[in-house]
Amino acid sequence: MSKFENVTVVKKANMYFDGKVTSRTIEFANGDVKTLGIMMPGEYRFGTDKKEIMEILAGQVEVLLPGEDLWHKIGGGDSFEVPANSAFDIKVLDVTDYCCSYLG
After folding, report:
1. What does the sequence similarity comment in the record state about its family (predicted)?
2. Pairing mode, if any, of strands 42-47 and 14-16?
3. In the chain, count of helices (H) and strands (E)?
């Protein structure tokens, strides 16, 4: 899906890591929530409350998922899932555009 229609956009930005990761929250009529954002190069650790699907729209990252020892290289057009109530590490190799879907 290249665009979202009939949504509510929260004006206030979500800012993490001194502004190196930012996003905007998108709310759908059926209650679904997604964020659209940009990550600047760096290494970050994120915690999750809900299961997440992270789509990398453009850019390159490496991700270390919970319970794994191997880093996965993810590029534009690829995605990865993170379980609820966990954390993952991400190395952003270049400016990365992403969409995160929150499930459950």
Report:
1. Belongs to the nucleoside phosphorylase PpnP family.
2. unpaired
3. 0, 11
The pLDDT tens digits of the residues spanning 51-103 come to 999 999 999 999 999 999 999 999 999 999 999 999 999 999 999 999 999 99
CA distance 13 to 24: 5
**Using CA atoms, how far apart are residues 40 and 96, in angstroms rounded to an integer?**
7
pTM comes to: 0.93
The CATH label, of 2.60.120.10, 2.40.160.40, 3.90.226.10, 3.40.50.920, for the domain at 7-103 is 2.60.120.10
Q: What are 65-75's pLDDT values in tens digits? A: 999 999 999 99
Question: How far apart, in whole angstroms, are the C-alpha atoms of residue 63 and residue 65?
Answer: 6
Name residues whose C-beta falls within 8 Å of residue 43's C-beta, 6 or more positions apart in sequence.
Answer: 89, 90, 91, 92
Token code pair at residue 102: 């929150």
